[in-house]
Every structure is written in structure tokens, then in C-alpha cells.
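re: ur msg from earlier - yeah i can do the calcium ion complex, just paste it... oh wait u already did. ok heres what im feeding in:
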Amino acid sequence: MPAHAMDPANGPVVDMLNEIADILEITGSDRFRPLAYRRAARTIEALPKPVSSYIAEGSVSQLAGVGGAISAKVKEFTTAGRVEYLENLRKTIPSGVLEMLKLQDVGPKTAGRLFAELRVTTIDELEKACREHRVRGLKGFGEKTEEKMLQSIEFYRSGGGRFLLSAADGVAAMLVERLGKYAQRISPAGSLRRRRETVGDIDIIASSALPEGIMDAFAAMPEVRNILSKGDTKSSVLLTNGLQADLRVVADESFGAALMYFTGSKDHNVVLRTVSIEKGFRLNEYGLFRREDSSAVAGRSEEEIYGALSMQYIPPELREARGEIEAASANALPALVEEGDVKGDLHCHTDWSDGSSTLEEMAAAAEERGYEYIGITDHSGSEKVANGLSAERMHRQIERIHALNSSGRFRVRVLCGSEVDILPDGRLDYDDDILGRLDYAVGSVHSRFNMEKKEMTERLLTALSNPHLSIFGHPTAREIGRRDAITFDADAVFGAAAENGVLLEVDGSPSRLDLPDALIIEAKKHGCGFVLDSDSHHRTSLADVRYAVGMARRGWLEKKDVGNTLGAAELLKALHA
Ligand code: DGT
Ligand code: CA
Ligand code: CA
Ligand code: ZN
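and the outut:
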């Protein structure tokens, strides 16, 4: 975070200047003018007040880099809302070329060359050019560039139209609560109920003998931007936050079958239907029926249906066709970890680094949740932008936490941790003197995300072999929709974590959710242990641990796999294993 955020009024001016720079750079017409426009954009971005107030004072052309021609364009933009020069520039390239800049790793120079040398004018055409291996024909581009571009395209498209689970979770709970009084039973379904990291829309299933009442209430909610369709059994609306919500209403005897069907996943449903047929049944959204006489066997509840198929009840998070149906048939499903099993959070920031609550506020919030302990893990010194703690401040924080614990002010025990940067060479960002005083250290990658696989693997293996490291924080370092996972040899890294007793974090911060489910499953095969954290930067976000729990359950984790389901004494032993 910069010292202060950009004045929101200046956003469009900054965008305008950068777009001019982008187009000039794409067309390659001038080497220096793009730099001048970018410099002016940076200056304006850093202004504490709207640029219009500098214009009013007559001081705009004195701002660094905002002289002559550029200040004229800034003035034109603030009065007319558009700039003639940019309008004309836009006509010099197809608009799809500018859209390509939204892809990771495609800058104006690359976009310009793809356009000039391959006549690629849209993202679709770029995809085609990569698949036809035409991109590698350009000087300086190779097979790897094509692969990376295809990944960027996929990433860009998957980001489009999907929402973080956290963006949908609260609204869905509110809808269910609000519509509950019009229904016999009601539940969220779909990917949200399976706790996927992103959701395409909100699906809600209700049972009612009077569907009109609930449908009317649904369509009349203040959060509805517009009604996409409205009927007796299904209605769809677009909410003001951009999410679509689908409500399906069934008779109460079909509630379980409908809930099961619309919870999915599609792949789970497909396998389940096949198994049903093998057992002489037919399964659909209305119920489970005997094939020979179409008589109803089950449908009222999911438990009843799985039971009739001689299976254990399968929790929604497992319904991804990853072997859960076989396991349920063999009575071998894991007893998944639950939010109530978590006895404390081990990854929390305070206002000592980049959090916005005090140590005491975090402790109070942990106590309110009924936690036995809370681990404070502010950033280490290298995290300058996050106000990381110098050695001296870290020593001071340790003293403060010891004093707080002995004051008896809180029942909750405050643990002295740190989120220590794993430096590019794999060393930790504090010396042994500090590391030895901490209750535990969480090691995280916050820099040099783009290292080659081999180098990154070595970096992580070095860190994991440090006896002071207890937890590997948000191991892939991804940010959903914003930054790809770092690449490393998962077998080697998980093997080393298991061998050295380093616990892997499942970070519940909504845009991280890291480790993700597929890697949790892999790591568990290596015998790794885990911790579930919120990575809170504010006292109200301790509740984000629920997203970590969702991810852990999708990764088939049980209570015994998770370190912070232990009491404090046992936990500290596990952290020092
Ligand atoms: P999303 O919305 O993309 O995050 O993912 P879902 O899983 O919520 O998918 P959605 O909303 O299209 O449909 C909800 C569920 O309905 C889905 O998980 C399974 C079920 N479903 C939808 N279409 C089909 C289908 O064609 N066949 C089967 N077997 N199930 C379907
Ligand atoms: Ca859905
Ligand atoms: Ca849907
Ligand atoms: Zn971090």
C-alpha cells in the first residue's frame, strides 16, 4: 500500500494518460513520449487532492512531468471528459489489441508486435496463433511463451464472470434467512455449498406448497437489480453486486433429491446416477425410484437417498468425483474437520505491521470466538511496504506479548509468532536469536514469485530444512484472479515438509485459499500435517477461518490432520517437532 491511496477523482485522468502511453507504445511511433505520459500519470496518481484543484490554482503545469502538451490534455479531459488526441489515437489500432494488455505477461510492446507481425487483433486470435504455433516464429518468442500466453488467456477468461466464494457467501446466507419464512425447507446449493473457491452464481433450493409466495418475495428483494426470469419452479435474478441468483422451489418430498441434484457437482451426479442404475434405480431431481415399477424409494432428504444407495452421507465439499462415492460405499469416508474443532488461529496481523487492529483487539476477538489461543504473526523486516518488524521491534513485541499474557487480562493465550519472509535464497528474514525466542515461525514467500521451478524448489527446500520453521504459510502464494501460484516440485516440497515436521498452512484469506484442495490431497498423501488460519488483518476477519475449513474439507482433511485443533501445550510440542 502506498502511504496514502490515490484520490479517486484522479483515477480516470491516470487511466487516460496510461492509455495514450499504451497506444503510443503499441504502435511504436515514438520511444520517449510513452515514458513522458507514464511519468505524468505516476505524478497525478500520487497527488493528495483532485487534479482539478491544481488546475484551478493554475499550478498544474508545475507538477513533475505534467508540462506543456500533457497539461493541456489533462485540462481538456477535466473540462470535456474526453481528449481529442486519444480519440484519434484509438482509431489507429483495433480495440482488441488494447484488451490483450489485460493478459498477464502481455505488455504494449508484445501486443504491438503480435499485431504488426502476426496481424493478431483480439485475444481469440492470439489463442489461435498460439495453438497454431505461429507465435514462436517471432524473434525472441518460443514454445514457452506460447504456453504461458495460453495459460494467461485461460486465467483471464476464468476470472471473468466468477466471484470469490466470500463475495457470494454472505448474500446467500441472507437470502436463505430472508426467504426461509416462505419455505418449508431452504438451503444454498451449487458450488457455494461445495465451498469451491469461486462461484459462477448462487443456487438456492426451497420446498413449499405455495411457490408463488416465495417467488414473489425473491423477486421483490431490494438487492435485485433485475429479474432474468420468474416462474413457479424456477426464478433467476441479477443482484446489485453483479451476482446471479437462481431459486428453485420443489415439493417437500423432493427437497433432498433437488438439493442433491443442484448441489452437484455435475461429475458427482453423473457417477451417482450410474451407480443408481447398476443397483436397479433411477435418480433425478425428484427422487430415487425403483426402475421396474417407478415407485419412489427416497427423495425427502439427501441422507435418505445416500442410505438407499447403501452409502454413507457424503458431505457437499467431497462431491467432486474424486473417489468419494467408492469411499462412501465402502464405509470409508474421512470424518472431515469442522470449524468447531479449531482451537485457535496461528496467522494474524496487528497494527504493528500491516494489520489495522491492535494486539489487544485481536486477543479480545479471539476470546470472543471461544479460542484457547491466538498466534500473532506480524511481518518480518524485509516487508517494508507492510511495515515489517525490524529485529528491535520484534524483540519489543515479544516483551509486550509476554506482559499481556502475565497480566491476566485475557483468558486466551497469545502466542508469539512471526510471518517471516522466505528470502530468495531460502534463508529466513530473522536471525536465530529472534527465531529462538518465538513460539513459532510461519515462513512465507512474498517476493520473486516468478522464479523458475528448480530455483524455487531449492529456495523452499532450504527454508523447510531450517529447524526454526514450524509452518509454511500460504504455500503457493497465489492470489485468485490476480497472481498465479508459484511453481515448485510438489513431491519434493511436501516430502520435505512431512519429514521435517513443518505444517502446511491452509490460509483462509478469501482471495488466497492456499493451499488449494487438490494440493492438500497431494500433501496429505506425503503424510504432511496442516494448520487452518484466517490470515486476519483486522479483528473482524478471524471468521475467515471458515474458508480455510471449507478448503480443508474439500482436501479430505480430518481433525487429526490439523495442528490447531490441539490444545495449546500439545500444539506447541507439535510446532517444535
Ligand atoms: P458454478 O455455478 O459454475 O460455480 O458451479 P455449479 O456447480 O454451482 O453449477 P451450476 O450453477 O451450473 O449448477 C448447479 C448444479 O446443478 C451443478 O453443480 C450440478 C447440477 N447440474 C446443472 N446442470 C447439470 C447437468 O446438465 N447435468 C447434471 N448431472 N447436473 C447438472
Ligand atoms: Ca452455481
Ligand atoms: Ca446456477
Ligand atoms: Zn503472507
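cool cool. The chain has a mean pLDDT of 93. ping me if u need the other ligands too
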